[in-house]
């Protein structure tokens, strides 16, 4: 049988086209990226743990998009850190992009809607010291560090246009989850609906539908913006894999 792979390629020199094997094999270990991503995961987990310690209703706590998105960041970044530390190929941009979008939604909605008294959906209240620290970790630290990881430690060009609408599956699923949970709780229950723009008692189902469409379009616009920026942003670190710019696999 004819061997279709030249022996020189398998020995780590060049392939038939004269391309060095080092240009097509996965990059080596990336300890700095691994440590940074582990710290991002730790920040997300720390914020969740602090909120858990200070909460008397874990069901309510874990119904928040904030907690769920930070939990997703913790898992994704811990997984990505392990792969960077061991020199394995990076996670798929579809996965890392989803985590980036969800945690960006968390940060942006909190700072521009929930903390903005003029938005009509503000959720301002007195916080304990633990809640204040958790609040900063979950709404500010993890969104900013996740964005920094994307901009500095990952190669551009991995996000595809089809990813933008695929990423919306989770936010769209969250809507019926929040409404169903609220419907099952007794009227007047504290935190019956996790966010003011999803409160059926305040807005009715017609108002919720309008809010859902508005936020859904905004989230899709954000997903498209991230995809576009990923295409045009510069590569801020020296590329180690010329053929696979996303680092998600040895070959494109």
TrEMBL record:
<keyword id="KW-0472">Membrane</keyword>
<feature type="transmembrane region" description="Helical">
    <location>
        <begin position="32"/>
        <end position="50"/>
    </location>
</feature>
<keyword id="KW-0812">Transmembrane</keyword>
<keyword id="KW-1133">Transmembrane helix</keyword>
<feature type="transmembrane region" description="Helical">
    <location>
        <begin position="167"/>
        <end position="185"/>
    </location>
</feature>
<feature type="transmembrane region" description="Helical">
    <location>
        <begin position="205"/>
        <end position="229"/>
    </location>
</feature>
<protein>
    <submittedName>
        <fullName>Integral membrane regulator</fullName>
    </submittedName>
</protein>
<feature type="transmembrane region" description="Helical">
    <location>
        <begin position="134"/>
        <end position="155"/>
    </location>
</feature>
<feature type="transmembrane region" description="Helical">
    <location>
        <begin position="93"/>
        <end position="114"/>
    </location>
</feature>
<feature type="transmembrane region" description="Helical">
    <location>
        <begin position="62"/>
        <end position="81"/>
    </location>
</feature>
<dbReference type="InterPro" id="IPR049713">
    <property type="entry name" value="Pr6Pr-like"/>
</dbReference>
């Amino acid at each position: 049988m004819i061997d279709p792979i030249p022996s020189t390629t398998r020995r780590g020199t060049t392939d038939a086209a004269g391309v060095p094997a080092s240009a097509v094999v996965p990059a080596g270990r990336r300890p700095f990226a691994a440590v940074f991503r582990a710290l991002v995961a730790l920040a997300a987990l720390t914020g969740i743990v602090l909120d858990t310690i200070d909460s008397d209703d874990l069901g309510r706590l874990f119904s928040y998009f904030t907690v769920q998105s930070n939990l997703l960041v913790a898992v994704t970044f811990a997984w990505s850190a392990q792969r960077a530390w061991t020199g394995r190929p990076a996670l798929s941009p579809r996965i890392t992009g989803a985590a980036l979008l969800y945690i960006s939604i968390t940060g942006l909605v909190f700072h521009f809607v929930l903390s903005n008294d003029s938005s009509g959906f503000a959720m301002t209240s007195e916080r304990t010291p633990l809640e204040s620290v958790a609040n900063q970790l979950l709404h500010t630290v993890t969104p900013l560090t996740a964005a920094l990881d994307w901009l500095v430690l990952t190669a551009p060009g991995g996000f595809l246009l089809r990813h933008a609408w695929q990423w919306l599956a989770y936010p769209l699923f969250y809507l019926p989850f929040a409404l169903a949970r609220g419907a099952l709780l007794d009227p007047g229950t504290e935190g019956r609906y996790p966010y003011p723009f999803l409160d059926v008692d305040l807005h009715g189902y017609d108002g919720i539908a309008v809010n859902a469409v508005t936020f859904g379009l905004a989230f899709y616009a954000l997903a498209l913006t991230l995809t576009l920026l990923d295409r045009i942003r510069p590569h801020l670190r020296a590329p180690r894999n010329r053929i696979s710019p996303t680092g998600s696999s040895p070959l494109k």
